Amino acid sequence: MVTEQQTTTHTLPVMEAFYTLQGEGAHTGRAAYFIRLGGCDVGCHWCDVKESWDAGLHPQLSIDTILDGALQYSGRMAVITGGEPLMHDLTGLTNALQTAGFRTNIETSGVYPVTGSWDWICFSPKKFKEPHPGIYAQANELKVIIYNKSDFAFAESFVPHLRPDCRLFLQPEWSRTNEMLPLIVEYVKSNPQWQVSLQTHKYMDIP
């Protein structure tokens, strides 16, 4: 008999998985296998993958099946994203990926405790739900989406809680790039501890 915990651990709701280039943040331009998991209760109104929110809409795949998909490609960086991937226990998936030689990266809003073994954690907090305090000591990268001017102060509010070596990125929300990017550029020039992140995959017209 399969228990609920076993199901959670050994299968995951996968919305999509694809091989492309990382378009954002510290690893921009690197080949990566993306695994987008279903399920999110953060509720960003500007989210461009709202179809990921309902985990029940997406097939439950075994870890072996997910790994087999990743192994079809040359790259050995796997990016787990969502949705909010930390709604799920990711220990089994990351163990399998790392055993197979992958670097494991995650993109998370940080609202749930971190599970899994990670080579890189991108913490992208949202105003709509408080992050779990455990994320601060584990984040390698802070990436804040800038939708309006108040988001600069929101971004700065996290910096005192992070490790000194955490990299800091400001990224315009795609639909407001024309309005926000000039403000971000000026902000980074005045606050050079930050860097600009862009959704370069959209400029390249790739997934």
Automatic annotation (TrEMBL):
Catalyzes the complex heterocyclic radical-mediated conversion of 6-carboxy-5,6,7,8-tetrahydropterin (CPH4) to 7-carboxy-7-deazaguanine (CDG), a step common to the biosynthetic pathways of all 7-deazapurine-containing compounds. Binds 1 [4Fe-4S] cluster. The cluster is coordinated with 3 cysteines and an exchangeable S-adenosyl-L-methionine. Binds 1 S-adenosyl-L-methionine per subunit. The keyword Metal-binding applies. This is 7-carboxy-7-deazaguanine synthase. PANTHER family: 7-CARBOXY-7-DEAZAGUANINE SYNTHASE. S-adenosyl-L-methionine binds at W46, C47, D48, G83, S124, P125, K126. It holds the Pfam family Radical_SAM. Residues 27-207 form the Radical SAM core domain. The gene is queE. It comes from Arsenicibacter rosenii. Its cofactor is [4Fe-4S] cluster; Mg(2+); S-adenosyl-L-methionine. [4Fe-4S] cluster binds at C40, C44, C47.
